[in-house]
Design brief:
- The chain is built from ten helices and 13 strands.
- It has a six-stranded mixed β-sheet with strand order 5-6-7-3-8-9, sandwiched between helices.
- Helix 6 (about 185-195) links the parallel strand 6 (about 170-175) and strand 7 (about 200-205).
- About 30% of the residues lie in helices and about 25% in strands.
- The structure holds adenosine-5'-triphosphate.
- Adenosine-5'-triphosphate binds near residues 57 and 58.
- InterPro entries: AAA+_ATPase (IPR003593), ABC_transporter-like_ATP-bd (IPR003439), ABC_transporter-like_CS (IPR017871), P-loop_NTPase (IPR027417).
- Belongs to the ABC transporter superfamily.
- This is ABC-2 type transport system ATP-binding protein.
Amino acid sequence: MTTSTAHATPACPGLGTTVSAQGVTRRYGLRAALSDLTLELGTGVTGLLGRNGAGKTTLLRCLATDLDPTGGRLEILGLNPERAADRTEIRRRLGHLPQNPTLYPHFTAFGLLDYIAVLKELGGRRRRHDEVRRVLGLVGLYDRRFSRVRRLSGGMKQRLALAGALLGEPRLLLLDEPTIGLDPEQRIRFRDLVSEFATTRTVVLSTHQIEDVEALCNRVVVLDEGRLVFTGTPAELIGRAHGHVWSLPERPSAGTTTWRRPDGRYRVLTPDATRPPEGYEESAEPVEPTLEDGYLLLTGAADTARTGDTAGRGTAGPGLT
Ligand SMILES: Nc1ncnc2c1ncn2[C@@H]1O[C@H](COP(=O)(O)OP(=O)(O)OP(=O)(O)O)[C@@H](O)[C@H]1O
């Protein structure tokens, strides 16, 4: 299912709605970081994609009740974040890993999570400590629980911040670029953790790592300049690029998104038409598209790469309707 701007979109069928946004707008001064966003999300992992500045963090911050929309209506976990009592209840039930989490450097890993658990009002001392140990185990930092935060590596700090978001088993988990700095082993561990977590809960994952979206998400939302330009399954986004990807024996003269593969042939993404680039009708071989191809076509980035025109946004790919 695809939408250009403000069309209602169903959540995962049969799995209930966790987040409902109706015409949500968020302005910073005159700039609209989110424009008239209508969207419903349910159980599972939703991948939030978009270029730098597309509005992903702004959307997550609105869902985390950290920012108020300047227009439209949000419903989160059946509650209205405009009402103070509801807002408190939403905050009790959500976990948020922000883009630049604040981690007090002189705390130990355990002490920091315990501090967050106190703020989250997670029961008495014993229950709280059990919960802290549980999430430390989930992110593979149990052995480092007595290390000072400042002595942890970048990837470990990221995992510690994730553990903080997981405290209390939130119903809604908001993750802003969570896999930055993780090594491959930890990234797999992250996928395992999030995919299990999302069998009964809602996860919204903002990322530039398209392979994480392919691996984890049952739903993809693409933002472009604050507008919703796609919502659907990963397979539907890949489907956008069918017939647009080719393998050629040489770099085509008319530029398009391309690179030289290890086998010496050039992988080419043609934004305009589902036919081989002109002059290569005989030698072109069709290539199975990836999610990245669908995304590049949708956001017009394939055209931008071709022209080298980073400001030229008038050449949107065929997915923009
Ligand atoms: N506090 C702020 N004050 C003013 N403008 C802001 C503020 N935060 C974000 N913006 C602007 O809002 C727009 C959306 O920013 P946002 O951080 O939501 O994008 P993003 O998709 O998360 O980007 P990235 O992928 O780079 O993290 C951008 O134009 C940005 O410059």
